[in-house]
Design goal:
Length: 83
């Protein structure tokens, strides 16, 4: 997947995850992109831990994997901020 697709994919995933986790007001477009891309990496790591494939391209499965990773990432950041 090219760098442009990673940015688009990351922006979409980060935006959806921030809406689900109710952090959309605190995040801008750049942070949504970062959360989406890092979330794809985290989600891929989580899925390989369970013996499944990680993010494999620009498809629905990869979107769900990245969304799970982004939600986990936002939850960890929220937990660390509240401490």
């Amino acid at each position: 997947m090219g760098i442009i697709l990673w940015v688009i994919f990351g922006a979409l995933v980060g935006w959806i995850a921030s809406i689900i986790m109710k952090t959309d007001a605190q995040q801008g477009a750049l942070l949504n992109i970062v959360v989406g891309i890092v979330g794809a990496v985290v989600g891929g790591w989580i899925m390989t831990f369970f013996g499944q494939a990680g993010a494999t391209g620009f498809n629905f499965y990869s979107f769900i994997v990245a969304l799970i990773g982004a939600i986990v990432l936002i939850a960890i950041v929220k937990a660390l901020r509240s401490v």
